[in-house]
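Chapter summary example.
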Amino acid sequence: MVVIDGFLKDIWLECCGHMSCFRNTNFEISKSQKVGNVFMSRAKIVHDYDFGDTTRVMLHGLKSYQLNLKEKTILLSRNEPLKIMCSICGKKPAVNLCTACNQEDYAFFCKSCSKKHEKKCEDFANYACMPVVNSPRMGVCG
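The structure predicted for these 142 residues follows.
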């Protein structure tokens, strides 16, 4: 399970070294347990990352396969990044998110509109400018 924990953090969740855990609906699962003993067909496992602003990933065991491979983990599929356009010009892809303005209708900015927004929002330059990334943690934490 420690391999899956690291895998989820490396490709999707990691931001600031928060703690995480696996559990099913009834009990917590030790990270030292072997994947094959936990992910049986129809298993429903929860992975929680960050116990302050928790990001929860639901993992479902659909089918098991016997593979003889050299790699320990194989990526079978991955979510496509969202196509987030600039909230101001609407013409270019957003590259920054303003966490200070995140509750409003305009929070995503292309490179040139980021420079304009920096002049209007003093928090943007100080701490609120975060990159647009393919993660459910975008804008939650560093």
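To summarize the output: Residues 2-60 form one domain.
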